Amino acid sequence: MTDTLNKTALTNTSMNGSLIKEAPLLLDIENLSVTFGQGARAFRAVDDVSLKITQGEVIAVVGESGSGKSVTMMALMGLLPPSATVRAKRVMFDNKDMLIMPAKEKRGIIGKDISMIFQNAMSCLNPSFTIEMQLGEVLRKHLGLRGAAVQARILELLELVEMPDAKNRLKVYPHQLSGGMSQRVMIAMAIACEPKLLIADEPTTALDVTVQAQIMDLLSRLQREKQMAMVLITHDLGLVAQNSRDVAVMYAGQVVETSTVPEIFQHPAHPYTEALLQAIPELAIGQDRLNSLPGVVPSQYDRPSGCLLSPRCPYKEAACEVPPPILDTPNGKVRCIHSELPNLPSRTSTPHPATLESQHES
């Protein structure tokens, strides 16, 4: 499919879809696919993904584990193993073609202009080096800082991410920090060079609820202050509602729907999006069991010939036996034969209206 799935959704739009003010395009990924392995055992982990992200925008990429969220962003970062084959029609960042960019120039962008916060900070930090040494390496490599300037910038960064007793944390090792403190170090490392695009991959994994809220508040504040574009990778729809304005929903390696946060929660256009929302516990009605889709995500070696959701979809029709078209919706696009779901059941489990209103006004 050559159409860009989220051409409409990832620009600044009002709730009725009218253009407010389109920011300059920062990242343009078109028809990105990632395949692992060779020959008969090769499998496609990311399939025809297209994303457009404008400067200063926040988009959530949501889906269950294995849907291709992280692999898509790691392909952009060049962090996939040699067994991965990456193909795309276009990958433009800040008006630069990353597909033909020399390796040296790309290394200067990755980690500086594009930065990533990885899952589980405690396993990402090197246990053999102090926090000062690990942050200092980033500053020396990308900014060319030396001597006292390095230490001053490290302290500034730790204070910026609200590290308790920042001055006395410089000489500590990762194992001496709590999970929340380790994540603050990872955030400091990611924003050290003031990137234009920050990728936050499940930034609250393995943190308790209170610390999760603190970390997300911190990321939101830094994003606003630094005017960074941010990709929030998550399976938590609560984080999506509170921290992003636009959403891309992934299933089995494909982006199946894009829209604004209020539209996704109130009027989902894809059956998988609706299934995600229906799985949210609704305490007000006292459910005994959570709603779920029948079946499982298709194996990479036994994928349906048409819509990948068709074996599990309650709206399946004969037309679903062929790859679905990409249709326009009020604030985005959907990979489905329906531009809106027939007989859509009413929902009570939507974000608080104040949350949706704040996303509209931001």
UniProtKB/TrEMBL annotation:
GO terms for molecular function: ATP binding; ATP hydrolysis activity. Coiled coil: none annotated. GO terms for cellular component: plasma membrane. It is a peripheral membrane protein. Keywords: ATP-binding, Cell membrane, Membrane, Nucleotide-binding, Transport. InterPro entries: AAA+_ATPase (IPR003593), ABC_Ni/Peptide_Import (IPR050388), ABC_transporter-like_ATP-bd (IPR003439), ABC_transporter-like_CS (IPR017871), Oligopep_ABC_C (IPR013563), P-loop_NTPase (IPR027417). It comes from the Bacteria. CDD domains: ABC_NikE_OppD_transporters. It catalyses: a dipeptide(out) + ATP + H2O = a dipeptide(in) + ADP + phosphate + H(+). Residues 341-362 are annotated as: Disordered. GO terms for biological process: peptide transport; transmembrane transport. Its main location: membrane. Its EC number is 7.4.2.9. Residues 27-277 form the ABC transporter domain. It is found in: Cell inner membrane. Belongs to the ABC transporter superfamily. This is ABC-type dipeptide transporter. It comes from Psychrobacter luti.
